[in-house]
């Protein structure tokens, strides 16, 4: 009966590590260390913070449908 009311034990923040492959740095947020968290915020990781433009090589956030504001302006001028 005591097991039914016992709290779930999760690793403390000090015991967590980054979830990126081969990274053993301590956890910061969203399962990432400081370095990977910064890269995630900047959109440099494969699954970035924002959905990005679908034009090849463009990493800007989407603005209109699946393209960024710059590419949307380029298609409107055509």
How are the elements arranged and paired?
Elements: H1 2-5, H2 34-41, H3 69-77
Would you give an account of this structure?
The relative contact order is 0.09. The protein is elongated. The termini are far apart. It folds into two domains: 15-47, no CATH class; 50-78, no CATH class. The chain has helices spanning 2-5, 34-41, 69-77. The chain has 78 residues and is mainly α. It has three helices and no strands.
N-to-C order of helices and strands: HHH
Poorly predicted ranges (pLDDT <50, ≥5 residues)?
none
Biggest β-sheet strands, sense, barrel: none
Number of domains: 2
**How does the helix and strand content classify structurally?**
mainly alpha
Instruction: Report strand %.
Output: under 5%
Shape: elongated
Number of strands: 0
Spatial separation of the terminal alpha carbons: 71 Å
- Proportion of helical residues: 25-40%
Mean pLDDT: 79
What Rg, in angstroms, do the CA atoms define?
A: 20 Å
- Tally of individual helices: 3
Write a concise synopsis of the structure shown.
With 78 residues, this protein is mainly alpha-helical. The chain has helices at 2-5, 34-41, 69-77. The protein has 2 domains: 15-47, no CATH class; 50-78, no CATH class.
Keywords:
single chain, 78 residues, mainly alpha
């Amino acid at each position: 009966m005591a097991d039914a009311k016992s709290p779930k034990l999760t690793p403390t923040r000090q015991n967590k590590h980054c979830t990126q492959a081969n990274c053993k740095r301590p956890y910061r947020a969203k399962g990432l260390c400081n370095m990977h968290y910064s890269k995630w915020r900047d959109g440099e990781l494969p699954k970035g913070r924002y959905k990005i433009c679908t034009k090849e090589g463009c990493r800007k956030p989407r603005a209109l449908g699946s393209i960024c504001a710059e590419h949307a302006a380029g298609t409107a001028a055509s």
